[in-house]
Amino acid sequence: MIDWTRIKDLRSEIGEDDFLEVVAMFLEETDEVVGQLDGTPDLPAVESRLHFLKGSALNLGLTDLAALCQTGERSAACGNAASVDLRAVTACYQTAKMLLLASLDQPKAV
Question: Which of 7, 26, 86, 96 has the lowest tally of Cβ within 10 angstroms?
Answer without folding.
Answer: 26
